[in-house]
Amino acid sequence: MPRSAEHICEFAGGLSESAGPLQTADAQAAAADERASANGNGAGPASAVAERPRTPAEERQGFPSISGSGGVDEYEGIQMQASQRTSGLLVRVRNMVKHFNTSKGVFKAVQGVDVDIEPSSICALLGPSGSGKTTLLRLIAGLEGVTDGRIYFDDLDATDLAVQDRQVGMVFQSYALFNHKTVAENVMFGLEVRKLDVDRRKRVEDLLELVQLTGLGDRYPRQLSGGQRQRVALARALASNPKLLLLDEPFGALDAVVRKQLRAGLKEIVQTVGVTTIIVTHDQEEAFDLADKVVIFNRGFIEQIGSPTEIIRRPATPFVMKFVGDTNDVPAASLLVRRSRFLTSKSRVMFRPSDIQLFTEFVESVDGHLVTGATVSERANLGWTVRYTLRFDDDVEVEYSVTREQADGRLGLDIGQRIYLYVKPEAMMGFEPEDIDSAPIL
Ligand SMILES: Nc1ncnc2c1ncn2[C@@H]1O[C@H](COP(=O)(O)OP(=O)(O)OP(=O)(O)O)[C@@H](O)[C@H]1O
Ligand SMILES: [Mg+2]
């Protein structure tokens, strides 16, 4: 079984997971800070990492043993060139189930999840709040024990591997740096976890260069911007040359501009180092921009796994369709659906506003499909876009957006104006309201 959470936080470089679920992220960071202070110096809790012989499976996989004696591993350096990159882990999650016992009964947070994450790739976990993303990440890290299912790192069954033996680096939403330590000492802490026999100063310099913080090693966290602090956390997570990097909303506390900058930096760093990376995010743009593979979660299940393009172009389920872009949703019996000749056994139909073809002059049909008349009922100015509400003769309404420039020009519409719409049936998807429900399952 995985070690205690206390141990884990130490391995994760001072990210205090042990402070308990009711504490805020800041409180957890403070708790981590306090524990480190109590240890009296920079070496701190890392010295608690236990000595343990390697299992035969680990020997085969080349997993290093963790030893308090130091000098076991050679200096691995920061792999700056593609040809020397670390080969990240192949992560395979099989039939993963996690139930929590609560006062109201069993809560099914993860309900049979299968996913493969290729070596050195970036995988994004995306989904509504409470859908099980963090829980899956914690299961992979070993911070939670599984209810059922297995986790494999390459060919090694890692399900019951102790956290500190998983070669995992972690960054969480809160910066969770040690406030009483300098930037360099914070990064060095990550290094101490594995007791690598290395030129530590050089190593820290390399890491700071990697995250573009060269020269800031002597500063304290309070003297850094939020984005810089998060980069220190990343450097610390990478210090022990992990084969797997787990990021839970790493940029969650930052504003949009800084997020974008860090995102570009993260992609480059991950590609440079070659570490397999799993990132949990609420931000769809971030997920689609960063990831090779996106996993869409809902209520503890996976709705779809695919490349960003596949998910956007070919949403597999009504939930994904609704979750990853704007949709209009109308009754299946509405005039528009019937005239488009879209056949479905479901009660409702959705389609993207961008799939609306709109004509200001009367046309009978497009590609043999009848066009449906409607009236412009509302106009909302939303900064760079203008959103029109269009009402069909059966009182069903849909939304249609154009850029401000288009609205001011040829595509501008007037309230009360008669227009004609066509949505091709291939762009429509039938669904029932429960298909798009995201309430967690008790
Ligand atoms: N220790 C626990 N005990 C009971 N329930 C838990 C526990 N940890 C998580 N849960 C529940 O499991 C569900 C999934 O939680 P999880 O943290 O994985 O969600 P998430 O997808 O990461 O959400 P968010 O986007 O809000 O971070 C939630 O409903 C949560 O309340
Ligand atoms: Mg979460």
Automatic annotation (TrEMBL):
Keywords: ATP-binding, Hydrolase, Nucleotide-binding, Sulfate transport, Transport
Residues of the ABC transporter domain: 91-324
Pfam families to which the protein is assigned, alphabetical: ABC_tran
GO cellular component: ATP-binding cassette (ABC) transporter complex
Molecular function as annotated in GO: ATP binding; ATP hydrolysis activity; transmembrane transporter activity
Bias type Low complexity, positions: 25-50
SUPFAM superfamilies, sorted: MOP-like (SSF50331), P-loop containing nucleoside triphosphate hydrolases (SSF52540)
EC code: 3.6.3.25
Segments of this protein annotated with the region Disordered: 1-72
Listed InterPro entries: AAA+_ATPase (IPR003593), ABC_SmlMolc_Importer (IPR050093), ABC_transporter-like_ATP-bd (IPR003439), ABC_transporter-like_CS (IPR017871), Mo/tungstate-bd_C_term_dom (IPR008995), P-loop_NTPase (IPR027417)
Bias (Basic and acidic residues) ranges: 51-61
Alphabetical list of SMART domains matching this protein: AAA
Name of the protein: Sulfate transport system ATP-binding protein
